[in-house]
Amino acid sequence: MVGDREQASLIAAELSLLLSRRGASDEAASAATLAADQAPAESVTAQALAGAARARVLLGSRDHRVAERFAREAIKLVPDDMLNLRASLLVGLAEILLAAGRHDEAQPVRAEAVRLYERKRNLVAAQSFR
């Protein structure tokens, strides 16, 4: 049943990220908790996206320090060859740094995300984060 738990976690994490962006913080927090609870330990993607969802929820509550910690932990989980996922997580970290007023730190993180998207040939994503 690991596959079912992984799918549930991935869907809940994506839902949480979407709800956070739309300002539905309570619902986003519930979905992020579900994502974390269902993420199998052996699924890097589920673990990383659950962490990203929790970071985004914390960003919405203005807890930048803890949001940054969750974002960085999620990035550490992802191998270097998972370019799109790493880039997406880096974009999330850059957003947290920007919200915390740390623009000088956010710029190289965002640039690294663009570099990874370009390396993967995901030119649409690369262009949107330039």
**Shape annotation:** globular
CATH superfamily: Tetratricopeptide repeat domain
Structural class: mainly alpha
Tell me which CATH architecture applies here: Alpha Horseshoe
Largest sheet: none
Mean pLDDT, to the nearest integer, reads 94
**DSSP summary: helix tally:** 7
Explain what the structure shows.
By secondary structure, the chain is mainly alpha-helical. It has one domain (2-128): Tetratricopeptide repeat domain (Serine Threonine Protein Phosphatase 5, Tetratricopeptide repeat, Alpha Horseshoe). Helix content is 82%, strand content 0%. Helix 1 packs antiparallel against helix 2, helix 3 (44-60) runs antiparallel to helix 4 (64-77) and helix 4 (64-77) runs antiparallel to helix 5. The longest helix is centred in the N-terminal third of the chain and has 20 residues, at 2-21. The relative contact order is 0.11. The model has no long low-confidence stretch (mean pLDDT 94).
Topology:
Layout: H1 2-21, H2 25-38, H3 44-60, H4 64-77, H5 83-99, H6 103-120, H7 123-128
Helix pairs in contact: 1-2, 1-3, 2-3, 3-4, 3-5, 4-5, 5-6
